[in-house]
């Protein structure tokens, strides 16, 4: 129990006065007396002993009617995701309301109080979720960080810690560990946030002492992937001591280390700093091919290693450093893709090793990634990661889904073109593209959607997106007079010849209403569904547009994705596998349309939906102008199902009122 | 509503006040709320006994209301607002079979009649006059200042302008210059004009039964329109005996058998008490709440005791504490006005927030960024409440609030 300050003691007395007034008031008169209680709560909370005082009165405040007339009156209807937003609200009264509510959950969760509509187990579960969702917030409690984040953030952190100390972190760890695995399953290029979370878990476990259980095991697997994946690193000895140990090991021991690293890396997609140290050390170890072992290469990768050993060693020395550990995984995956055997790739990579950066480019990369490694190293590492994990590209917190999607598509389908763009942008500070024969030079264009571009994405995106964004905007400008959806013309010109030249749009751009939607639905079946297109696979990734909806099915905005393949899921159902550039594909789009990222046959980085569910959110796709038709008719029921799902979500107010226009439905004269 | 005592009276509350309803609902008397029809839904949803009534300016229908209440079995009507004082007088003259009550209530409603009646009762009042237009105001301003031997160009002594039928600080203006006169809107006439008295202004809340003061509270104004606290400082309480005499004069002059009055006084530097005005209804500015905080009894419930013909003296003696000594401390409040022309958010000043006497506030975030210019005494944006042991410390603290920004 924290010692109570005299200020807290006095305010506690005031709080009691305010609560008594609230208690006394008849239900219809409660509202006026809520505000004073909340005012005192917000002032008492930051004081030593304040949270305890509030906790001990929390259920009493609830009974007195503090939450009457607000959403908080029904605790089981509250959403843990929204909690911290309210806590950090500019409205202090609202923030205090959330604090009082959390304290009520805490009192019930710890069994110190009973509540008429809130069960102990429910309260525990709710708080667990709140903590898991906000672990980064409350472990950032170096005072420096708190100060920078402001007083209110510090207060929220203290409150969350106060709760954590009382409900324990075991369940919280479970929730977080599951979340981290879910993200890692998608193999993002950007692993910074995940690494931070794992570090915080490590700190938490260290501080909390051990609470055994399955959660702890899952957490330790993640921690060891970063801090001790092998026998000799298990005790996290530090890099210097580890290198010294390597000098004393025999071949069998070294081989075991190499395999340990490889297993952990391919298990999680994370590369430990020790792994980098080992690989760089192994480059100069003459007796045994430890490098391919440490990279965990399969037969394709090994074949590349044998053919291009010199280039690969050069790429490792230039790109894999303590500041760029993930380049090791990127390179391994690049080799595993076998694309080194594609004629232009090896020379293009060699060209990438000889970059001469413009000063402004160097400045920009330094700004985004620091100077621990050179800008050349960061760019090369970025290229290896993006080409090794094309579906791991994310747009960061930027409105540049189009550019991120293009980078991912090129990495997947046209990696030498991507490297070509990288050289242009790095050395000439421009990207030159053509739109229907007309050259577009990004250096001559004004800044696009993202201003001067993101710096919270991977290095290659940081370099390219500002250019791509401008070119994309310029192409849009050139299409503006044509009417209709400009993507029809932009997408093939921007991405490559392999984007199908025909295009179907579900919405009439001028009216915003659905336009021949049934036809749209049929056409997507005929073009993409193996059951209706003569079992023809999708060959090249195709850009597509979705009407993005939230978990209630409410329309949020248009979003760019890539359709990768249409195939059978585990249960034999037809699924669309696609890439979403928004960093995390696993999303609930409402009304049962929930994108999965694993468990339904997805490859790393793919999201998937059952065919009709996907189609119900689709508003634009590309279609081959010359394709055979008439394989199998699309059943009317399928069309109706899709139409209904669309109408229930994003298209509800986009259905044109055609009923009166339909002569069959018109009233007879 | 809780069980009520069938041997006690049945009261009607005239006017809509949630605080009053809440207090009376918790008391042991049967009650009914008489308020405009818009309150009907709210009352039926919350189980509040209700009778719809439009209190417009003309009360020729007061007889109808009185008879409806009589049929309902109501014993007495209690006015909650200035606008319902006449209605209560008219209704009670029927319910209590006492025609004098209507005339009495008219005196309370007309500030000029009220002042003359007080003067006739031997109560000292300042110089006053009625004004029907702006010319009257200018004339009064000039005459008062001539009397004070001011020369042309000397700054004028202010006069006070009070719309006849408005309560509290609404419609109360301080006039110093002809420009101030120009700013008076037409609908505030007719009005009462008063000379300014330099002195200590305070208010009294008196609960009266059987022509006897049952409880007398002195509310000390720190600054009119800004702040008030109860009980008053010992310096002001030292005059309690004289003040009690003055209230007894009012009881005689206005022939008050029962009820609640809320007069205002000035204590001038030459130690004379001047009567300002009196209202026959609960005061604004949450004064009853301050009294409850300090003394622990609910003022509205006290009102019901005073009005109910079936109340016994024993009941009254048990209800009210000893004045001054019966208080747990001093409670005050401060009405916050934004001081800046443009404000963006509410921020309680640190000096205030950290002061041990500060309790809580009812201030809301600003709805508009631009602050409209105050007319008359204006309406504050909310109240901040204080409570403490030392009345001088509390007084100085309330005064200090005037120099602080709550909205920045």
Automatic annotation (TrEMBL), chain A:
Spans annotated as Disordered: 647-669
Protein name: Uncharacterized protein
Species, as recorded: Tranquillimonas alkanivorans
UniProtKB/TrEMBL annotation, chain B:
Record Gene3D superfamilies: ATP-grasp fold, B domain
Keywords attached to this entry: ATP-binding, Nucleotide-binding
Presence of the UniProt keyword ATP-binding in the record: yes
Gene Ontology MF: a single term: ATP binding
Protein name: ATP-grasp domain-containing protein
ATP-grasp domain residues: 115-308
UniProt entry tagged with the keyword ATP-binding: yes
